[in-house]
Design goal:
TIM Barrel, about 10% strand, alpha/beta, 8-stranded parallel sheet, single chain
């Protein structure tokens, strides 16, 4: 009996419509991506790269954008789920969380920790209380950080041991400078929490437009060693990745570098099964 091929999932991509006006970071400093990116822009790129489904992730700190993304998901066959945004330090968070949890496309939550003025935002008492609600709801939690945030994240994970979380973009180490430490040590400490995964994503933009596979290799080698094939997920970070590489090159780089560590079964997990399990999405 012939086994059906496993579906592949890009665990991290974005859409935006500039005229909506809530993307504060989207300005002339990122001019190549200062335009609308919507499903029909991505569809042919997925087909060429052999990717079947995606997880659509927030890129603005507004509930309005979360609603916008959920509308797209309801109308787009390849979007398996949405990771949205809610204000985790707002007294109304419990009610808003309950509201969005009723939407079957809402599969995760992401505060944009990397851009907040308080590096220890995740340790604020009310935020920790709300993080416990996320854990109780068994909702996926995306962690968007720079390496300097990782010690604070580790303390939050200790305080909320049941949280299912994933580190986005391998925590954005200084790949262009080749700086491995203290990122290497602090990420290994995060990997000690069994409920935490890591997205192999966002690397080319941290490496710069003239990146080479060799620049990425030591960073991928480390996440492969500390997270293993059951807790890694491929993510394109498209269209942000276009600042350094087209979609196909991002997918190829991940396959080439991860393929040096894992066989076909492991790669099937990293390029689909792990994301399906983590975000609890239907991929049939």
């Amino acid at each position: 009996m012939t086994r059906a091929p496993s579906l592949t999932i890009d665990s991290h991509q974005h859409f935006w419509k500039v005229s909506r006006g809530d993307y504060g970071w989207l300005d002339e400093s990122v001019a190549p991506i200062l335009r609308d990116f919507l499903p029909e822009d991505l569809r042919p790129l997925l087909a060429r790269a052999g990717i079947d489904r995606t997880i659509l992730v927030q890129a603005a700190e507004t509930q309005a954008e979360t609603d916008f993304l959920l509308e797209i998901a309801a109308q787009t066959d390849f979007v398996a789920g949405v990771v949205g945004w809610l204000d985790m330090d707002d007294a109304g968070f419990p009610e808003r969380l309950a509201h969005y949890r009723r939407n079957p496309h809402f599969v995760g939550l992401r505060p944009m920790l990397q851009g907040l003025p308080d590096d220890a935002f995740i340790l604020r008492p009310r935020v920790l209380d709300h993080l416990k609600l996320v854990a109780e709801a068994d909702l996926a939690f995306d962690i968007l950080t720079f390496p300097r945030h990782l010690p604070h994240v580790a303390k939050a994970l200790e305080a909320v041991p049941g949280l299912r979380a994933v580190i986005d973009h391998i925590s954005k180490p200084a790949i262009a400078a080749g700086t491995l430490d203290p990122w290497r040590r602090d990420l290994a400490a995060i990997a000690d929490f069994p409920n935490v995964a890591c997205k192999v994503s966002g690397m080319v933009t941290e490496a710069g437009a003239d990146w080479r596979l060799a620049d990425l290799r030591p960073f991928v080698d480390h996440v492969a060693a500390v997270f293993g094939e059951d807790r890694l997920m491929f993510g394109s970070d498209w269209p942000v990745a276009l600042l350094a590489a087209p979609y196909g090159e991002v997918a190829h780089a991940a396959r080439a570098l991860l393929g040096a560590h894992f066989g076909p079964a492991g790669m099937t997990k990293i390029f689909g099964a792990n994301a399906a399990r983590f975000y609890k999405v239907e991929v049939a």
